[in-house]
Amino acid sequence: MSELPEPTGEHPRSPLRSVAVVGTGLIGTSVALALTAQGVTTYLLDQDPAVARTAEALGAGIAGRPDRPVDLAVLAVPPSRIVEALAQQQAAGLAHSFTDVASVKLPPQRAAVAAGCDLGRYVGGHPMAGRERSGPLAATADLFHGRTWVLTPSVRTGPRTLHLATELIRLCGAELVTMSADLHDRTVALTSHTPHVLASLMAGRLTRPEAGQLRLSGQGLRDVTRVALGDPQLWTDILRSNAGAVASELREVADDLAVAVAALEWLDDPDPAQQRRGAAELHTILASGVAGRSRLPELAGAAASGGQPPPSAPFRPARGPARARP
Amino acid sequence: MSELPEPTGEHPRSPLRSVAVVGTGLIGTSVALALTAQGVTTYLLDQDPAVARTAEALGAGIAGRPDRPVDLAVLAVPPSRIVEALAQQQAAGLAHSFTDVASVKLPPQRAAVAAGCDLGRYVGGHPMAGRERSGPLAATADLFHGRTWVLTPSVRTGPRTLHLATELIRLCGAELVTMSADLHDRTVALTSHTPHVLASLMAGRLTRPEAGQLRLSGQGLRDVTRVALGDPQLWTDILRSNAGAVASELREVADDLAVAVAALEWLDDPDPAQQRRGAAELHTILASGVAGRSRLPELAGAAASGGQPPPSAPFRPARGPARARP
């Protein structure tokens, strides 16, 4: 599977020789499994030492703190705890450089500034991978294979930190995308948080009908609502951290929804002219949906065959490389 | 696979000995394949005789009209053409009894009354199965296996017609659900048409961002928007035929969406009391989504293993068997 030469132990080719993973849940343990498989010495830390030992038992690395600073620490803790962990572990000298895996990037970057963290040794990260299950037992070494992994360097991020985080992504088999923290957060509001809320609203309406009526549901309804099974507390935290951008997206969805309702009301009107107007409007909405959905690239690993990995060149938005001032 | 004894040809156990399928697209040809496999003599009619011959070449039956009336005709034509086909084929004496497979049931029932059709020999039907692909080449004999198939008898539907349609469903391996045409249409507005419009609205928003931003999309977005790939013309027709019920559902979704937007705006407020209020409101929405999604039964055939077929007893709404007056 790997494109890398076998690691030699004494003379690894990678500049990333040692990593500490803080938080050995699904994502942290999957990172650790991938790195250990590539010959990187990986330490496993968790606020619950038993969870870190579980990850160790799975072959993810060594449970416990390293004796001296590692090259890179990966903070795989919940979004609300990242800056606390960053400040604490920078003060304790856990690693030369730090990155995280939170699904929002601007709030931790801002909070890190406010907390007096060393921003030169931190770069925000967000691997676009996950599973329905959580915890170390759900972790797999290939979780990130072919998936997008975003880095959101600030103007203060140092080159060595960016280099080490880039190497982390390469060793995990993921594809690097670089953008500003602000653009990242507006983008995931569109691609992740808004669909989650819509799926939850749709799924919430299924609490009302009789059970027999629900037998009139097919694969389509199941697909549309699948993500609504996500943990409400975790998703409240995620949406809280990006609330402004998600609210903005959803207000626009509400505008579009009002147009769709009007189109359907025209279709339900006895006047043929109104019906034609409604049909044209609805067709436009549906055709726009086809066009938008067709833009999504094939997701690596989503199918046993036929899946195309995304192109390997890092994405840079047209307005130029990230220069957001934290 | 089949629970039926081998058909003997001369003494079949089923009261359904001959069927005419009108419209040999995906659904019609799949019905014909299933019936032919069960030993039912099946005739294949299509406005394009070449399409009927394609179905014949696939082993679905005999292309062309029967010499004398068959037991049951299955009208597998687009929703807008059902009543025309019903009136025409009843006048031509194609079959003793008639059913259809359209995804809405009240409009054809009403139009059949207006067109002077024999309602005693007609029962509306809707198999809950389909594929992304269309046409006879996409057809399979097991398309309906374990799936729900709704019948919507009116007060005028005769017992022999209902019996023959029930037998059709059994021979196709599907599970019968009986309800009024009105309840059917309100139910599919909820379980099929509303999720389709929401998916299209979400997918339509993907026409705007840069291609690189779309690399920040995962399986969740793909699932939520998959049905939006459906043919806009077909779906305009489907939604037109149930426009009032769908508009009503979507107006309620719009109300729920406004609550979600308010919750996110509170979460984005600097006031901690507002934030707590927003978090509580959002958690309620997300938890309701989990509860609703969890009510959906496993879909037969959706997974290679672990799929549970729905219970076999026909569903009757609490308010009693269908007695809708057409």
UniProtKB/TrEMBL annotation, chains A, B:
The keyword Coiled coil does not apply. Residues 297-326 are annotated as: Disordered. PROSITE patterns: PDH_ADH (PS51176). It comes from the Bacteria. Residues 315-326 have a biased composition (Low complexity). The keyword ATP-binding does not apply. InterPro entries: 6-PGluconate_DH-like_C_sf, NAD(P)-bd_dom_sf, PDH_C, PDH_N, Preph/Arog_dehydrog, Prephen_DH. Keywords: Oxidoreductase. Residues 17-297 form the Prephenate/arogenate dehydrogenase domain. Pfam families: PDH_C (PF20463), PDH_N (PF02153). Coiled coil: none annotated. Signal peptide: none annotated. NCBIfam families: PRK06545.2-4. Belongs to the prephenate/arogenate dehydrogenase family. This is Prephenate dehydrogenase. It comes from Kitasatospora kazusensis. The lineage of its organism: Bacteria, Bacillati, Actinomycetota, Actinomycetes, Kitasatosporales.
